[in-house]
Amino acid sequence: MMTGNSGVINYGGSMKIRQSAVGDGATVTVREKNRTSARRADVGVITILGKEAGAVHEVLGLRQVSDSSLPFFEGTVAAQGTNHRIVAIRALEQGQRSTVVAFEQLRRHYNPAIVVLAGIGGGIHRDVKVRDVVVTTRVIYYDLRKETPHGRRRRGEELKAPATTGHAVNSFFTAHGEPAKFPSLDGSGHFQVLPGPIGSGDAVIADAESEIIRYLKAYNDKILAVDMEAGGLTQAFHEQDGPQIVRGWVVVRGISDDSSAGKNDDHQDLAARHAALTLRHLLPYLPAAST
Asked: What's the predicted TM-score (pTM) here?
């Protein structure tokens, strides 16, 4: 007997149904995935200022992704016989909050094995000179504080990168010396690359004797530099969840000033380029994404 059928009927055997709908008036809409969702990267790079982004793009040979609504730059860097897939994004604004968003954008669209915050910072230690570079896997966020009738009491919070990332950075310094030295890009000798912790908060510091600098030196006398974004990177890494997990982070800061009243922009370009060059030398030691 024949009966009306507005669904699916099978009289035996196996059957596969894909991209289909069942029932009267059923329709199927197939959405094309964002092409960036299929991309992968070994290293994701966050920059803040235009001169930082330009230095990273130039030194690493990155090109803008034309089919993305976000300002991603991609490239492949050959180092010690291995090709490293790089993606970079410039955060919308300075500060911790935009850095958190940039981290999530890299993680969601490229799922890199490691994220590097690269750019400039202020030196606060006698061993660090303008145009040197600090590489760190330890960040002290200094803006946690309590306001009391007797004054401000800061409560620093230190976050460290995973041990695997620390070992990678240690391997870099084992190979290149501690401090490492590389030819300056302005032809004026060499610049140093030093390992050590940095402080991070929302203040632009232009006073070498400020309360923040005094606090950081008392917290740890080995803190080398300060910036305004690394705290956001470490917190975003600490709180990430879901199937796409970044495995580590590193901060690379070219020293553009000494955080004193004489702070200016004169050395920002060279400091940013030295940071990008240091990242280029660091790449072979960083973990790669699984394919």
From this structure: 0.84
